[in-house]
Structure formats: C-alpha cells, structure tokens
What does this fold into?
Amino acid sequence: MLSTLALLASLSLGVDSAALQPRLDDGVAETPPMGWSSYNHYSCSPNETTIRSNAKALVDLGLDELGYRYVGIDCGWTVADRLPNGSLTWNETMFPSGFPAVGQYIHDLGLLFGVYEDAGIKTCSTGADQAGSLYHEQQDAATFMSWNIDALKYDNCYSQEDTGYPNTDYAPSTSPRLRYANMADSLAAQSKKVLFQICEWGIDFPALWAPSLGHTWRIGNDIIPAWRAIFRTLNQAAPQTSFAGPGQWPDLDMMEVGNNVLTTPEEQTHFSMWAILKSPLVIGGALKDEWKSISDASLSVLSNKDVIGFNQDSLGHSASLRRRWSDQGYEVWSGPLSGGRTVAAVVNWAGEARELTLNLPDIGLQSAGIVKDIWNKKTLSNVKTTYTASVGAHGVMLLELQDTTTAGVYASEDFATVSGNKTTFHSLYANTTSTNHTVTVEFAGLAATKTAILLQSFSKAVQVPVAPSARSVSTTIPLTAGYSNEITISSTVSIKSIRIASPSGTYYACTSFTLGGSSKLEECDAGFCTPVGSKIGYINAENTVHATIPASVTETGSETSTTSKYLEIDYINNDIALATSWDWGSSSRNLTISLNGGDPVRLEVPLSGRHSELFGPGKGWWDSSKLGILIDGWKNGPNDLVIGNEVAGDVSQTYGADFVGLHLYD
Ligand SMILES: *[C@@H]1O[C@H](CO)[C@@H](O)[C@H](O)[C@H]1NC(C)=O
Ligand SMILES: *[C@@H]1O[C@H](CO)[C@@H](O)[C@H](O)[C@H]1NC(C)=O
Ligand SMILES: *[C@@H]1O[C@H](CO)[C@@H](O)[C@H](O)[C@H]1NC(C)=O
Ligand SMILES: *[C@@H]1O[C@H](CO)[C@@H](O)[C@H](O)[C@H]1NC(C)=O
Ligand SMILES: *[C@@H]1O[C@H](CO)[C@@H](O)[C@H](O)[C@H]1NC(C)=O
Ligand SMILES: *[C@@H]1O[C@H](CO)[C@@H](O)[C@H](O)[C@H]1NC(C)=O
Ligand SMILES: *[C@@H]1O[C@H](CO)[C@@H](O)[C@H](O)[C@H]1NC(C)=O
It folds into this structure.
C-alpha cells in the first residue's frame, strides 16, 4: 500500500504522466458510455410509460446512431420488501409489464438496459423505503442478470452501519470500497459483462481504486439543475483528468441538457466540457413523454457529431485545465486527440457575450493548419499564435486543432516576411515580460560568408557572431507578455526558423515568505507538497504572507516603468463540496496576489487533492497543483508581493488555498 502511494505521488509530479490505475479490463466501456437516464428529469419516480417513450425517442431522434445506447432506470423502480425468496422486484404499479419485459423492449430497440441499485440497506431517499443491495449482492447480481441487464449504477445511501445507516454519510469511518468490491465480484460471477457505474459521490477518492472494480466512478456529489453546478463539477474534475482512460472514466454525472434550466450557450458549455473530460454522456432531459419533447436547440447540442467524436476518441485522454483568469472570468482546457489533433475549450464564465482569445502557446501549440470552431460553425486555416472569437454568455469556444506546430517554434515561411537581408518575425508570443528570453536562430543552410547576424527586438539590437559552420545560433532578447512581439534579423544567409524559450526564472518557496497573522507553515511528508515539501495554510485577508522579490524591468522596450510577469503558483485545495454541493459549494478556493500595494489579482483554484480526503496522506491536503497567472506592476529593484485572500466578504473566516511556492518567470 505504501509503495503504491509513493508511486502515485511521484506520478502526479509530471503534468502529463497518466495516473492510470490497475483496471477491470473486460472489454466494456473502451470509450465513455453514452445513453439516457431517468433521474435528472423524473427524479426517483420513473415509470414504464416514461421509460418506454424516452427509449423509443432515442431511436426516433437518431440519438442511438450517435452512440447513446444505455437506457438507465434510476432510483424509484423497486419496493421496500423483497419477494418471499429474497429476490428484489419492481414496483408493479409503476412497471406493470415487469422489468424483464421492459428490458426486452429496450433490447428490441437495439438499445442497452441499465438498472440502479444501492450499496446500502435502502436506496436513496425517495419518500418511501426501497430495498438496497447491501448484504444481498450475490442474489441481486443474479436477479439483474436474469433480467438481462447491461449496466448497473450503484449508489451509496444508507450504507454506513456504525452511524446507524443515515441517508448520507459524507465522512464514513470506513471506505465505501469494500461494498463496491462485493458487488463487483458478484457481477463478475455472472455470465455476461455489464457496465458497472460506481456512484459513491467521490468519497475516499475513488479514482485510486474504482478502476479495478468498475468502469466509471462519480467524481462528486449530484449535479443540480443550476448553472453553478458546472463550475463546481469542473473544479472537482481538475485533479482527476489524468485518471481517465479506456475502461475507466471519471463520471461528471448525468447531464442537465434538455431540462430547460440552462440557456443554449450554457448547454453547449456543459456538453462540451463533459465530452472533452471523457465523462460518460448520459442525457438527463425528457426526450419524449406524454407532456414534453426535447427542444430542437437542446437536441442539436446533444447531437453534435464533432463533440461526440471528442468524447469517443480512440485515444481516451481527458482534457485538463491549462489556465484560469478568475478576475476576467474565463479559462482554458485542452487535451490530445487521436491523429495528432488537439481539442481546446475556452469557457466564458461571464454572464455576457464577448470576444475571447485563445493563445495557442497556452495549450502547447504555436500554429494550426486547420481550426474547427465547433459552435461558431466555422473552419479556419493557418491560424498562428492566437485565435479570437465571440463567445456567448456562459458559453464556450470549442476548437479542434489539426496540423499543429509546437509552441515556441516559428518557421520563417509561416511567421516571417523577408526584405533584402532582413527577416522579420511576427506574432511572437511571450507569457512573461523579460529581457531574458532565449532565441535560437536556425539557418536554412551553411554559408561560408556568414560572420554575424544583427537581431533586433524592441529597442534592443544585438550583434551575434556566427561561426562559419554553425547551423544555428542563440542569444537572449527582451519580449513583452502577449502575442504581438516582433524580431528582425539581418543575415546574409536565409533563416529557416527561430525558437523562443521563456526565461528559466526563479522559484520562491513558501519557506522564504514571511508569515502574517495566524497563517501557518506546515511540513508535509516526503514526496508531498511538491516541489517544496511544506506549505502555508490559514491564509485569509488578514493573515497574509509576503516576500520581497527583486526584479529587473529595464530594456524591455515597454513604455511604462512597470511590467507584467508570469508566475506559476503551486497551491493546495482539498475543500470538497459534498453537503454544500446542493447549495453554493464550489470545490474552489481563492488566492490573491498583490504586488507593491496594487489591486489584488484573484486566482480561484480548483481542487488539487489526489488522495483520499478521509484516509490518504495529509487527507488530500498535501497534493499540489500549478496554475499560471500574469501579474502586472513589477518595478525595477525590490518588489513586495503579498499572498492573501482579499476578496471574500467575511474576510476573517474565509481561508484561501494553501500556498506551496511560486515560480517567477523573470
Ligand atoms: C409516469 O410518469 C409521468 C411523468 O412523471 C407522469 O406524468 C405519469 O402520470 C406517470 N404514469 C403513471 C402510470 O404513473
Ligand atoms: C409503487 O409506486 C407508487 C407510486 O410511487 C407508490 O404509491 C406505491 O406505494 C409503490 N408500491 C409499493 C409496493 O411500494
Ligand atoms: C424468486 O421469485 C421470483 C418470483 O417468483 C422468481 O422470478 C425468481 O426467479 C425467484 N428467485 C430465485 C433466486 O429463486
Ligand atoms: C510559458 O511559460 C511556461 C512556464 O510555465 C513555459 O514552460 C513556456 O515555455 C512558456 N511559453 C512561452 C511561449 O513563453
Ligand atoms: C544587410 O544589407 C545591408 C545593405 O542592404 C548591409 O549594409 C548590411 O551589412 C547587411 N547585413 C548583414 C548582417 O548582412
Ligand atoms: C537569464 O537566464 C539564464 C538561464 O536561463 C540565467 O542563468 C540568468 O541568470 C538569467 N539572467 C537574468 C538577468 O535573469
Ligand atoms: C472567490 O472570490 C469570488 C469573488 O469575490 C467570490 O465570488 C467567490 O465566492 C469566492 N470563492 C470562494 C470559494 O470563496
């Protein structure tokens, strides 16, 4: 056990290292499962009429052909008492033909049949008691198989014996794992492989153990029919993205698309993010019943083939959070797709439509031969460095990028204009303002005549000697944060490309900060709170921490005497919204950075915990993550930098995220 944890800790250091766990490799759910389920619309009151009409609608609307095949009958289908022989049975008033017949109907439509049960003594609160599967796992698995099910969603209510089996126990004394393993074993003993959907609301960090038992695991508590659920869910998903892979999918919960609680841009954001994070795509709206049919707008969101393609992509890699601009209200996610493609999403948290810009280097790219702007229904070619488009209120810019080049490499033919012996490169990106970017010039060939090149960036010109046989030469140059830098190179030999690397910068560990108020420095076990090994907690508006940081802002060509520099903050947050998820819990925490007495810049960080919040090392409060942020107001000489939480209303009560350290790219 210890060595597994140590291994995981080391895996979580690398940004792209997959944290894939030993998994149940039975051929089920090689791509995220897709379907429809009754809960989000019908709550715990499914009945035969609505199940049949929604199943039929999956076919009539062509959704089955797009991949939506599981029809899940969620809570409310069973009764309090088992049959005299101990078998579970359905509510005969609500399902007069019985579950085998309903299952047959679903199968006859070419669809798959999913049922719901619970790893406790009763299913989740429905008003009336209904039997759970705890202590009946083998018999219930056999019963489900006799009904020819294809999927089991397994919930977690009334499961904790030592607290008297309450409806929910979010901090149980024992892990839910064993109860899920009992059902997994019982299912494995049956003749047919079924999709096992683990739904214990993310308790005890199931990403570390659920893949060996089932195919999907819920990462958090239920979605609620409100826009704010999207932000909370993405904050919970952020530290789990590396755990997604064939046969093991983080479940962001059934979708609210089609339930008339979200606007069309909001539904596009919801659907896009679930898709690119490789969540199961389970429709939770009423497709068709006696009273309702899904709107054309929602149907068109759910039917978008590009987005479904991102979800079902053979690579099975989740997108991950790249940058978040909390004050400006937007953020960038991206991830790889098969065929060398990349998917990127820019979420507009603001309640108004506006133009947003994706800087390709923020997702590791410099250019794209083709960019498909999915929701704007546009395809662009030869996109360089940046892409700007309008995004609706709470909407998303969702892009598929093909034929891409790596960030920092600029080919002359794409980025330069040549005039005589002058080659001028345009659209050069820098994420920080610094005199110390490294530029490497690659020549198109060898030429005996070349001796030196003249390189000009802003007001700075450098003469760089070139050895006769050199194919490339490097120097440092000033660049300003942003995407409109230019460099002109005078050279008699033509230039093939240039490469630009950020300054390596300086790391400031939390241990070099001065503690204010009741903020506290805590040491973590070896391998945790990376890269420092300790962290500062209990930071709020009054209890801030500060450091004096030297900077050099000369020679950047900037008009002003202060400049912007890029920081990467190592933070920790494991404040998981469980009970508060029904309300305003967001699974986020703020941190503010204020420089030289300037306005605090806010970074609202998602969860970072990658271990059990109940039993794991540091209870998940020792797992750090990084996010970058641009801070303006650097001046030459010493700068006073304050980390706090200077935004929340009740300042003395609200703690920010824990702070591990920061990397300043100066
Ligand atoms: C089935 O559920 C629908 C939607 O909740 C409801 O309108 C209908 O009356 C129910 N039918 C029966 C037979 O209970
Ligand atoms: C079946 O469901 C109906 C509607 O929810 C409920 O009134 C009835 O008590 C249920 N029957 C049993 C045996 O639980
Ligand atoms: C229990 O009884 C039901 C109803 O008669 C029957 O369908 C089922 O097969 C029985 N289960 C077992 C395990 O005998
Ligand atoms: C941006 O900053 C990161 C540091 O996180 C660096 O690795 C990357 O190369 C930078 N990109 C550019 C284009 O400056
Ligand atoms: C570029 O050409 C100009 C004249 O057009 C010449 O004066 C200059 O020396 C050349 N520079 C280099 C680096 O070859
Ligand atoms: C510039 O960067 C190099 C390596 O990246 C570093 O050794 C040097 O100290 C930096 N210089 C300044 C002035 O920051
Ligand atoms: C973070 O700050 C923003 C702006 O003040 C606030 O709306 C939000 O609720 C804060 N989040 C948390 C988790 O305190």
In short: The longest strand covers residues 396-406. Residues 1-18 have pLDDT under 50 and may be disordered.
